[in-house]
Write a structure and sequence with these properties.
Distance between the termini: 18 Å
Strand content: 15-25%
Shape: elongated
Oligomer: single chain
Structural class: alpha+beta
């Protein structure tokens, strides 16, 4: 059987691979094969296909931000000064280059972007806001909320809808 399904869609083995690798990306191919019920060679081909098709975009370690001294997690809405395509692209590129920004989304409603920003403490966050964020091109204003505690973080992509669609 080929690594991809007949119609190019995900089959139950692809879905099982995604579920298992989200739980533990460091599984060996042999361990992964045993968990999904296939032999090693077809499992490896399916993982490669998932990577080539862009379903799997990378592998990384999850780091506890507090253990590395990043005690502040802030959610920052950034209002753009001008809402036109070129100004937005310039601001977007500037935001991409900031290592303190771990996530950035275009948002509906008030604001143009919502950022997740990490800092060592409130003083460092304040300096980052004044010296960096407010100095970015086309930034009109920023509005910040702080995380008081994480209920859930680093969750995997929910895949139950794929399993039920495939009857698995």
């Amino acid at each position: 059987m080929p690594a991809e399904s007949e119609d190019g869609a995900l089959d139950r083995y692809h879905i099982a691979i995604l579920v298992e690798l989200q739980r533990e990306a460091r599984l060996s191919n042999a361990e992964l094969a045993a968990r999904i019920g296939l032999s090693a060679a077809p499992t490896w081909r399916r993982v490669r296909w998932l990577e080539e098709q862009g379903y799997i975009t990378g592998y990384r370690a999850e780091i506890d931000r507090r253990k590395v001294g990043l005690g502040v997690l802030a959610f920052v809405k950034v209002d753009a000064d001008r809402n036109n395509a070129q100004a937005t692209k310039v601001l977007e590129e500037a935001i991409r280059r900031l290592p303190e920004v771990i996530s950035c989304h275009y948002i509906s409603g008030a604001g143009t972007f919502e950022l997740q920003v990490l800092a060592t403490d409130l003083d460092a966050f304040s300096r980052f806001t004044i010296d960096t964020l407010l100095s970015l091109p086309n930034v009109k204003d920023v509005h910040t909320s702080f995380s008081l505690g994480e209920v859930k973080a680093g969750g995997g992509v929910p895949l139950a809808h794929l399993q039920s669609a495939r009857g698995g």
